[in-house]
């Protein structure tokens, strides 16, 4: 059956993905919103805490994204550390809804982030079903939408849009639609620097699949894959033109957030110090979670290497190396949200043996507990990685 026929057929897998992914995302949105409202009510006596609903989940970096959407990148601002894809979409939606709301930018940022999460859930369902079956698709999507940091699928952050593009690019790649994979990877590269890791992983997927099929690696589809660099490289080029510096992005990271490249042992030592002595008490347990998630991510890389799933190992491994050679492990745990091969592997494992089912059950329970805690923290403006 053609892809179009599959989409239109009653009960077809795209129909299941649309219904199942949308239902999962909606349930997650209701859960996260309820936790946020209860947290505000308990802390302030008001469900919204004196904030507009659109800003209920707009804390920390959300302010930077909103400022970029409203005013662009001021010359010399460290806001250039934030990639432009999400603010550009927010600005476009704000222009459309401005005649009907006075809070166009906050509402637009909320809508774009929410749509990104919805698309990511649908695509994850479809990707998992195409490789591991419908039951695994249900489990993988559930793990994704109620994971420890799933609040960032709904918060006014770029994670949801990046996840949607990354999963979409991977889906195109496993179907060997390499030109589309490259195009969607380029889109992912406009949302986050992680788009470069995604490109490396899809390039590995391309090479391994072409070799397995006995096809030449050096061929026109390779050019399609290489298109994926345009999102990241395009932003770096734009910064070079604007600032005259090739390292403008890394400079903004350093001066705005104190991020510099460190040795792994220095980064670990500084993270331990943050666990023990960070001036914000709410940050200390989050840095501890960053260390825990670094260990879990290392285990996941080892799992994919052992199974010779090189593309997944590259995606996770590059992410791990990048985040454990920064000043500290800050935001490492949150970055696992978009590492969708983990959720797919857990769901597939649960279909094969009882141990896998027990592991998935434990991950779900811990995920919901941490999701509740992180949503509470984030809503009240405390540290949530």
Describe what you observe in this structure.
This protein has 385 residues and is mostly helical. Helix content is 71%, strand content 0%. It contains 18 helices and no strands. It has helices at residues 3-8, 13-44, 61-71, 85-97, 104-132, 134-145, 159-174, 178-188, 195-212, 220-226, 230-243, 248-257, 264-277, 283-306, 310-323, 332-335, 340-352, 354-379. The protein is globular and about 60 Å long. The N and C termini lie far apart (45 Å). Mean pLDDT is 93; it is low at 1-11.
Tell me the layout of helices and strands.
Layout: H1 3-8, H2 13-44, H3 61-71, H4 85-97, H5 104-132, H6 134-145, H7 159-174, H8 178-188, H9 195-212, H10 220-226, H11 230-243, H12 248-257, H13 264-277, H14 283-306, H15 310-323, H16 332-335, H17 340-352, H18 354-379
Q: Label the overall shape.
A: globular
Task: Quote the average pLDDT.
Answer: 93
Largest sheet: none
Beta-strand segment tally: 0
Number of helices: 18
Q: Structural class of the helix and strand makeup?
A: mainly alpha
């Amino acid at each position: 059956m053609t892809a179009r026929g599959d989409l239109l057929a009653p009960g077809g897998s795209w129909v299941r993905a649309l219904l199942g992914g949308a239902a999962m995302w909606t349930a997650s949105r209701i859960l996260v919103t309820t936790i946020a409202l209860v947290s505000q009510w308990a802390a302030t006596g008001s469900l919204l805490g004196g904030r507009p609903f659109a800003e209920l989940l707009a804390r920390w970096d959300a302010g930077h994204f909103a400022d970029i959407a409203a005013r662009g990148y001021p010359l010399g601002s460290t806001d250039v550390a934030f990639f432009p894809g999400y603010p550009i979409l927010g600005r476009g939606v704000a222009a459309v809804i401005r005649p009907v709301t006075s809070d166009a930018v906050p509402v637009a940022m909320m809508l774009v982030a929410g749509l990104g999460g919805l698309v990511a859930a649908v695509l994850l369902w479809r990707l998992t079903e195409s490789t591991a079956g419908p039951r695994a698709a249900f489990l993988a999507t559930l793990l994704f939408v109620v994971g420890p940091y799933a609040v960032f699928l709904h918060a006014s952050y770029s994670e949801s849009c990046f996840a949607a593009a990354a999963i979409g690019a991977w889906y195109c790649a496993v179907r060997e639609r390499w030109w589309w994979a490259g195009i969607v990877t380029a889109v992912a590269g406009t949302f986050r620097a992680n788009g470069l890791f995604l490109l490396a992983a899809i390039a590995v997927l391309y090479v391994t699949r072409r070799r397995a099929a006995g096809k030449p690696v050096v061929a026109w589809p390779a050019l399609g894959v290489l298109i994926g660099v345009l999102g990241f490289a395009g932003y770096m080029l734009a910064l070079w033109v604007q600032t005259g510096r090739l390292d403008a992005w890394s400079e903004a990271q350093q001066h705005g957030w104190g991020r510099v490249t460190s040795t792994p042992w220095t980064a670990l030592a500084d993270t331990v110090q943050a666990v023990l002595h960070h001036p914000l008490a709410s940050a200390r347990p989050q840095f501890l979670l960053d260390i825990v998630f670094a260990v879990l991510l290392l285990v996941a890389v080892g799992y994919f290497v052992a199974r010779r799933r090189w593309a997944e190992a590259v995606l996770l491994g590059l992410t791990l190396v990048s985040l454990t050679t920064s000043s500290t492990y800050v935001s490492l745990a949150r970055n696992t949200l978009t590492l969708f091969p983990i959720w797919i592997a857990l769901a597939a494992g649960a279909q094969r043996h009882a141990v896998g089912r027990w592991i998935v059950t434990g991950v779900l329970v811990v995920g919901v507990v941490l999701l509740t805690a992180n949503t509470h923290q984030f809503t009240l403006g405390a540290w949530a990685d």
